[in-house]
Amino acid sequence: MENQLAKSTEERTFQYQDSLPSLPVPSLEESLKKYLESVKPFANEEEYKKTEEIVQKFQNGIGEKLHQKLLERAKGKRNWLEEWWLNVAYLDVRTPSQLNVNFGGPASHFEHFWPPKEGTQLERGSISLWHILNYWQLLRKEKVPVEKVGNTPLDMYQFRMLFSTCKVPGISRDSIMNYFRTESEGWSPSHIAVLCRGRVFVFDVMHEGYLITPPEILRQLTYIHKKCHSEPDGPGIAALTSEERTQWAKAREYLISLNPENLTMLEKIQSSLLVYSIEDSSPHVTPENYSQHAPYDAMVMVNISSYVDKKIFENEGRWKGSEKIQDIPLPEELVFTVDEKILNDVNQAKAKYLKQASDLQIVAYPFTPFGKKLTKKKMLHPDTFIQLALQLAYYRFYGRPGCCYETAMTRLFYHGRTETVRSCTVEAVRWCQSMQDPSASLLTQQQKMLQAFAKHNRMMKDCSTGKGFDRHLLGLLLIAKEEGLPVPEIFTDPLFSRSGGGGNFVLSTSLTGYLRVQGVVVPMVHNGYGVFYHIRDDRFVVACSAWKSCPETDAEKLIQLLFQAFHDMILLMNPAHL
Predict the structure, then answer these.
(1) Distance separating alpha carbons of residues 357 and 214, to the nearest angstrom
(2) Residue 432 in contact with residue 41, Cβ under 8 Å?
(3) pTM of the shown model
(4) Which of 48, 244, 335, 422 can pair with 38 through a Cys bridge, CB separation 3.0 to 4.6 Å?
């Protein structure tokens, strides 16, 4: 009985889903006021006056009508944005998901028990996979702890999309196929797919009701590895997934038309828990090794990566259980029926991908003189610290402000995902100007910096509590489109895109958390940067990307300026200097 009781009081991963509040629609007046403030750094007086008039006209005219329609829509839905966002941000997008949409990153274990070492790939891979599969079992049993802010639960829905989920290409819009079920909901697939030298294998990770062990996973991976290294390469169908989406949809339809068995095999891959890729070479970017980003945001990946990292750390990177291997079925190869056309499509896809990937500059560095321990001691929020340092770095690099997107999380609400924090505020720019003004006193610089901090912290709080304005404006634009109305002038005004609107931010940034996990994302625009960073007690780790083909960007230089800004900012907080 006691045991039963303990069970019933234990929180389940998805137990609060039904009681989370609906995503609110902010007030139109507030949103437009915030929008106007956000364009100020990018306009001269005349331009600003013109935009002010456009916004006023919008507020009193079509904007109000669209807002009313949005409120109507929100009445019937717990999250008025969800379906729209998935479509507009991910499923309607036609550019290749590889690089452009997906995020990538290294495992964090190389910092402790697993420094890079030849000949460890399969053994480490099997241990890593085993921990990931344990996480899958926790999720099926709803034992992954509910994430909270204080005592308030956050939406956990995205975690359902971590396993057995696939973005299937469509001619004009992709679709999400999700095969995951919790134990109480019923059967869920339990096989994984493995890619090696252009071939695809699948095997079940459950045997007689139990998860197979690392030595058993190792046996499966070794079998695949040996087979692929002693026989000719396969056709490399997986490379087609890195194509432009409509292109991939057509290639997929053609593949299915060659032989209905091809569809059965594609579905086998789609429903697999995950796709594991065994590479030939040391770590570098290949078309296969990114995480799909449509159905969930980076924080979900951070959570599982951190779980695996902790487990590997606790076990010193080793498997300490039985070495005994049961008689489990060998992996099954999925052999696709292909023809010249498909093989040609595969080669084209690889060539395009490698061309784009080789244009990407990625730099990742730890900043180790100090971390959040010191910024907190100085009463400075560490995330805001990095955001403002980035503003200063960009300003010093280009002599002008850089419009910046920082991700805020709206998971306090049902199926909430993200909102945009526009870090380039009037206050931030005033502070940057004072830092570049030799006649400004340290006290002035410090005061302006603290004003910029206060503004940023307030915006982050607003955005996380459903009071941002970017998603609201998007909603109004989408209502206009759905109603077949002309695009309102507020969206065609040059200041809209110059301030970052419509996906035009030159700095696309996100905090990946306070753990050892790091990732990277590509820039949003050709002359921009992608910046992912994480924060620890004693360091900040920053990864920055830029396109080599853009002559005016240099990720290496931006990071140097960023680290310089960290030093300059902490000095401003040193009372002895003021």
Answers:
(1) 33
(2) no
(3) 0.91
(4) 422
Query: How many angstroms separate the CA atoms of 521 and 364, rounded?
Result: 12
Segment holding 307, helix H or strand E? helix 298-314
pLDDT at 388 over 80: yes
> What DSSP element (H or E) covers 20?
none
| Percent over 90 (pLDDT), the chain | 81
Length of the chain: 578
301, two tokens: 């990946």
Evaluate whether 39 touches 425 at the Cβ level (below 8 Å): no
Q: How far apart are CA 357 and CA 495, in angstroms?
A: 31
Per the structure block, which two tokens stand in for 298? 């980076």
Among candidate residues 189, 350, 210, 331, the one with its CA nearest the CA of residue 273: 189
- Cβ distance 105 to 522 under 8 Å? no
- Beta bridge partners of residue 534, listed in sequence order: 541
Instruction: List CB contacts of 349: < 8 A, sequence separation 6 or more.
Output: 239, 240, 242, 243, 248, 287
State yes or no: pLDDT of 18 exceeds 70.
yes
Give the tens place of pLDDT for each residue, 340-360.
999 999 999 999 999 998 999
> What residues does 509 pair with on adjacent strands?
406, 531
Q: Helical H runs in 61-207?
A: 62-75, 82-85, 97-100, 121-140
- The confidence band for 114, taking pLDDT boundaries of 50, 70 and 90, is low
| Residues ≥6 apart with Cβ < 8 Å to 81 | 23, 417, 471, 474, 475
Look-up of token digits 């244009």: 359
Q: Is 211 helix (H, G, I), strand (E, B) or coil?
A: strand
DSSP codes joined into one string, 72-88 = HHHHT-S-SSHHHHIII
Contact 169, 246 (CB under 8 A): yes
For residue 407, what are the β-bridge partners?
A: 420
| Residue 55 to residue 61: CA distance in whole angstroms | 10
**Contact status, residue 239 vs residue 273, Cβ threshold 8 Å:** no
CB 421 within 8 A of CB 508: no
Higher pLDDT, 71 or 315: 71
Q: How would residue 121 be classed by pLDDT, with cut points 50, 70 and 90?
A: confident
| Helix, strand, or coil (residue 424) | coil
Number of CB atoms found within 10 A of residue 278's CB? 19
Rounded-to-integer distance, Cα 467 and Cα 446, Å = 28
54: left (phi over 0), alpha (psi -120 to 50) or beta: alpha
**Residues annotated as part of the active site:** 293
From residue 544, alpha-carbon distances to 89, 375, 488, 558 in Å are: 22, 22, 35, 8
Q: How confident is the model at residue 116 (pLDDT cuts 50, 70, 90)?
A: low
